[in-house]
Amino acid sequence: MIEILALSAAVFYGSADFFGGLTARRANTIATVVVSQVVGLVLLIGALPFLPAAVMSPRDWFWAVCAGVSGGGGVALLYRALAVGTMAVVAPITAVVSAIIPVLFGFAIGERVGWLTAGGIFLALVAIVLVSQQPGATSQDNSRSRSERLPPGVLIALLSGVIIGIFLLSLARTSTASGMWPLIVARLTSVTLFAIAAVLTGKTLRMPQPASTTAAVGGALDMLANVLMMVAARIGPLSIVVTLVSLYPAGTVILARWVLGERLSAIQNAGIACALVAVLLIVSTTG
């Protein structure tokens, strides 16, 4: 049962990222983040009457606000990377880096890192190098293209992974007694910040109808994934749930291949495979 819930969450997370990236190609990133997160927030608030009562401490409030700032920024960067780069490359990079961050944090505070985790980190670095290769480069300009620039969106994806990793850490610092309120506070924080950013930068929150539709779909799928993951985590081992959920880039890659017709080189395909294995190794020894 938990395997079905966790894998379903992974599918919805990957689909949400695809629709978010697709929306960011049709509208500005700020509008994409605000609209998608507002939709998810409305759905979550609507579910509150059916959830157990919860109480947030001042510490929970602090970490929830941190999660809102980092989560909003990480998602915005991810959507931007998905919009300008190849989705099948961007999604695995972000997933791998965001999985590494909690491991490095644990190491910094004195936790031991096992051989599987160390192997996963090394494989993640290999994956980033492989998927970052320019497809279609000739033997004459291959070395030059590698040194001059990376494929579009790779650097943004790396930064997005770091910030999303901080978001995951922030939520992890909240207490279980706070229920889903930290997620609500985090969403309120991110929506407010990006609404202010829209005013200060003069960016409109209006979208063409197709973009607003894909943004709403992405926001709904993201929140549905959150719900499924939380249910699975409450009835089964967290390590298994997180391991399966971390496979979410597969959904983004498959949709990008089917809908957008994205094609990768053999080296980049190998890199994506390494990224998925790295996530499995890293997360399977945490939680």
Detail the topology: elements first, then pairings.
Elements: H1 2-24, H2 29-47, H3 58-84, H4 87-108, H5 115-131, H6 142-148, H7 154-172, H8 181-201, H9 209-235, H10 238-245, H11 249-259, H12 266-284
Helix pairs in contact: 1-3, 1-9, 1-10, 1-11, 2-3, 2-8, 2-9, 3-4, 3-7, 3-8, 4-5, 4-7, 4-11, 4-12, 5-12, 9-10, 10-12
Number of strands: 0
Output the number of helix runs. Answer: 12
Strand portion, in percent?
under 5%
| Rg result | 19 Å
Poorly predicted regions: 137-141, 143-148
Q: Which overall shape is indicated by the principal axes computed on the Cα atoms? A: globular
Number of domains: 1
Distance between the termini: 19 Å
Oligomer: single chain
Range of helix content? over 70%
| SSE ordering | HHHHHHHHHHHH
In round numbers, the mean pLDDT is 81
The structural class is: mainly alpha
Biggest beta-sheet profile: none
Structure description:
- With 287 residues, the protein is mainly α.
- It has one domain (2-48, 55-136, 145-284).
- The protein is built from twelve helices and no strands.
- It has helices at 2-24, 29-47, 58-84, 87-108, 115-131, 142-148, 154-172, 181-201, 209-235, 238-245, 249-259, 266-284.
- α2 packs antiparallel against α8, α3 (58-84) runs antiparallel to α7 (154-172) and α4 (87-108) packs across α7 (154-172).
- The model is unreliable at 137-141 and 143-148 (pLDDT under 50).
